[in-house]
Amino acid sequence: MIVSGINSVTTPLAGWGRYPIEPCHLFRPERRRELAAILASGAQRDYISRGLGRSYGDAALNRESGVISHLRLNRFLAFDPETGVLECEAGVSFAEILQYFLPRGFFLPVTPGTRFVTVGGAIAADVHGKNHHRDGTVANFIKDFKLLTPGGEILVCSPASHSEIFWATFGGMGLTGVIVSARLALRRVESAYVFVDYQKTRNFEEAIGIMGESDRQYQYSVAWIDCLATGASLGRAILMRGNHAPAAQLPKRLRDPLAAPSHREWNLPINLPGLALNSLTVGAFNALFYAAHRNTTQQLVDFEKFFFLLDAIHNWNRLYGKRGFVQYQFALPPESGRDGLAAILERLARSRRSSFLGVLKCFGDANPGLLSFPIRGYTLALDLPADRGLKPFLQELDQLALRYGGRVYLAKDATLSAETFAAMYPQLERFRALKRQLDPKGVLASSLARRVKLVES
Amino acid sequence: MPSVLILGATSAIARAIAAEFARHRSELILAARDAEELTALAADLNLRYGVKTQAQCLDVLDPAAVETSLPACLAAAGETLTGVVLCVGTMGDEEAARANQAEAERILNTNFTGCVLALNVVANHFEKRKRGFICALSSVAGDRGRQSNYLYGSAKAGLSAYLQGLRNRLFRSGVRVITIKPGFVDTSMTFGRPGLFLLASPEAIARGVYKAINSGKDVVYLPWFWRWIMLVIRLVPEGIFKRLRL
């Protein structure tokens, strides 16, 4: 007899970078208990959970094996308007949370640059946002979560209970268990707007200098960097820093402070030809972007534009054509960050690999997450088209990052080698030991996990 | 506030229909046998749309429950109950059911007998009140039997015929009966099955169901083009049809 939810479809899957693309057996349960049934079914060799597929590389892929979509397990379970704590299933997206809770005066406590991520994915990648220097990662706002262990047990994990598993799951890329639901503390806000200060800097050094001086005054801080500029302009940047706008300071014409203006949405219906993005066109775009900004303060910007600029263009990943692209993000500690950034930015500019603006940010302290990415210092994220020669180039960048004491973000990575990964994440052995203990039969695995040897393959 | 009772509330289509009613400010009474799912669903719809939702653990396939719990459930809903939407159904394992009588019986019970017994109770309730609507999800599969799903299809054909008769009976009482015939819908019922095309989202079906209930229509294909697809399929002479691999 066919048990509903246990059916699977064999289909090519990819992350948001559309590189790599791998055949996987996709499950899409609609009832919560089907999660355990799938894990126990033996239908596939192993399984990895998948949300909206916004990790860039192979984190939510499992070549020739099981992938479990959580998109139909997306129910809000409880909300306490006094504390702002929302309990929901892992398949709930940040977009849904904003849609239903921003009108009630609540915002995401931490959000990446897209709202099309799920709560489960956010936990697994331990996502950070423009407020990491103040608020840390999403882990700081998760009261607890329910984890279905590979053995079929449901554990309620919090910093106080099963704390080791709790901290292994943030950044654990879905390998410690299947996240079923979580309790997330939302942030109370008075409006859907942010007051933003824009500041242009001649180069990245000036940018991190200013950020180091005055980031404390801003809840949100980020700099867009021109990765193609060279010489004295190396890493010229535009700082964008802001705070939630109090309702009282909004212009009177905005009748409902919690409603953002609706934006026109765009869709990129087809792949652009691979040649469309080259160092000339991207260089021109970056120069225009830099020239178009002025130093201004207290600009009223709605949350969609400030936090989710690219969400307005559906399928923007098609910009990079059929070949796909890689998003590369690394973090460097404060001591060596300046030199490391200089070395990597120089290498990038010299390569003429067309990257749209990179995103630079100062991180606050790391959390106890065994594989959590953010460490105190600096982080830079950039897009690179997946053309020939990219892999050796990225390996070169990996080595540069490593030499300066840095690390690469797994949620965006598609090429890191197991050796380099092990050198970047000192708590890897503890994670592996816990993984062996939690999952002796290897029920949970992904292409990423095999590539960087988070699991034995 | 008006309210609607959804029977078989935990399926993906039922969830979307419930959401559509909630969006239009209708309170919900959700009935199904799976208590865990029901609780999650009721909480979700309440939190999203701010309408009152009530979970009623009820096995529509249990004749005893249908005879005792369902009337109680209808009575408790009170005067505000505007109608009932029945979403009970299962695709089953057609292939296994050729040899496995239990599976065959389960398919027939879930898609026909169980539905009919429940709708009998619902019909009596609304007939007395002389208003309301009864909407049930049948299927295009009931329009013509084909080898790949004729057990499911014959049960749905029976359900469609039952609804036809019920509509005729309740016309005088001012109770509307709406037959919905969805084509392929993107739910766990179809997920992973080969040979499907023109898959509609549960949300699209839900919008169509809401519209059908609030228009004067009796039988509605969803999406609309299935009416014409099924017309063509019904027109194929049996002598030819029996030779096809469908």
Structural commentary:
The complex is a heterodimer of chains A (about 450) and B (about 250). With about 450 residues, chain A is an alpha+beta fold. Chain A has two domains: about 110 residues, Uridine Diphospho-n-acetylenolpyruvylglucosamine Reductase, domain 3; about 220 residues, Vanillyl-alcohol Oxidase, Chain A, domain 3 (3-Layer(aba) Sandwich), CATH 3.40.462. Chain A has an eight-stranded antiparallel sheet with strand order 16-12-14-13-19-20-18-21. A five-stranded antiparallel sheet of chain A has the order 5-6-10-8-9. In chain A, helix 9 runs antiparallel to helix 10. The two termini of chain A are about 30 Å apart. In chain A, about 55% of the residues are buried. The mean pLDDT of chain A is about 90. Chain B has about 250 residues and is an alpha/beta fold. Chain B has a single domain, classed as Rossmann fold (3-Layer(aba) Sandwich). Chain B is about 50% helix and about 15% strand. In chain B, strands 3-2-1-4-5-6-7 form a seven-stranded parallel sheet, sandwiched between helices. In chain B, helix 3 packs parallel to helix 5. The longest helix of chain B is centred in the middle third of the chain and has 29 residues. The model of chain B has no long low-confidence stretch (mean pLDDT about 95). Chains A and B meet through strand 5 of A and helix 2 of B.
CATH A-level architecture of the largest domain in chain A: 3-Layer(aba) Sandwich
Helix count from the secondary structure assignment of chain A? 13
Secondary-structure content class of chain A: alpha+beta
Most extensive contact: A-B, 21 and 25 residues
What is the CATH C-level name of chain B?
Alpha Beta
Rounded radius of gyration of chain A (Å): 21 Å
Please report which band the strand proportion of chain A falls in: under 5%, 5-15%, 15-25%, 25-35%, 35-45% or over 45%.
15-25%
Order of helix and strand elements from N to C terminus of chain B? EHEHEHEHHEHEHEHH
Q: Considering DSSP H and I runs of 4 or more, what fraction of the residues of chain B is helical?
A: 40-55%
Q: Tell me about the biggest sheet of chain B?
A: 7 strands, parallel
Strand order of the largest sheet of chain A: 16-12-14-13-19-20-18-21
